[in-house]
């Protein structure tokens, strides 16, 4: 919006994930106009929902914006959309149309994004599949825009200035020629034994490949942190990291040989840098990555994880096939298209945006893995 002077932008954050939020704000040099500061130890989904709804209600009553933009599938996203609806303020949903068709996978994100779709007036879909899904659910075509995903915009912006890997232990392993397995886990439905199984699979891989180092970004939630520490602390060639800021995380992603994750965003970011992804979930709202060959669903069964990771670490052709697949998620211009769509939808322009069109040719319309 900095290059769209007809819009006056105000940034509101809820503080649902305080540490991660503050890191992102610093990296992108953003200063919120309002911070609800909701995060509390052991907070429940009900607490987050009620706090966000109440806090946003007062802000919307005071400022009366012309449109509220929400992104993704967090509880904050749904609460903000509901608060805007109560004030009859149109909602634009960025990253709209993702679905798994299982209300408990991921939990509560699948329901959050479905409810947000019901409340939103404008839907900015990252892929053609997501756009088709919105149409199938009865949303009028003129309210759905195919834009690509802003996560790729952010990745390109940061990758251009990220620099080398910061963490000294990881650098030491890389200097010794070791291959980096980057691991992130946080999904609520996998807390406990499923996460424990993932970490045991990582230990088995470390034992099988003496040129591999496992780098685990440990989510701050105590339910995740306790299991990761119990299973991995003190294991040779396993590095446990506090979640780095995005400027610190992108170099790790660039240096990785393979990514094991249950994150939604990483299913898009890793392929954009040519990194094969093993998705630690049974279902994904981003099946395009699996269909394109960038990612593979392995769940949390350690046997499946070890089998698939071992194949990629041992078979150069299998690895190359995943690393060179086409990434269907964006070309770095999603935010530009969203601004253009808002201009058109709000009567500020007579020219609708050109939609994002991934192509197998490797041209400007898509980004190779």
Automatic annotation (TrEMBL):
Family: Belongs to the UDP-N-acetylglucosamine 2-epimerase family.
Pfam family, one: Epimerase_2
Enzyme class: isomerase
Gene name in the database record: wecB
GO molecular function, one term: UDP-N-acetylglucosamine 2-epimerase activity
Protein name: UDP-N-acetylglucosamine 2-epimerase (non-hydrolyzing)
UniProtKB keywords: Isomerase
EC number of the protein: 5.1.3.14
Annotated spans, Disordered: 349-369
Organism: Geochorda subterranea
Position of the signal peptide: none
Boundaries of every UDP-N-acetylglucosamine 2-epimerase domain copy: 2-343
Gene3D superfamilies: Glycogen Phosphorylase B
UniProt keyword Electron transport present: no
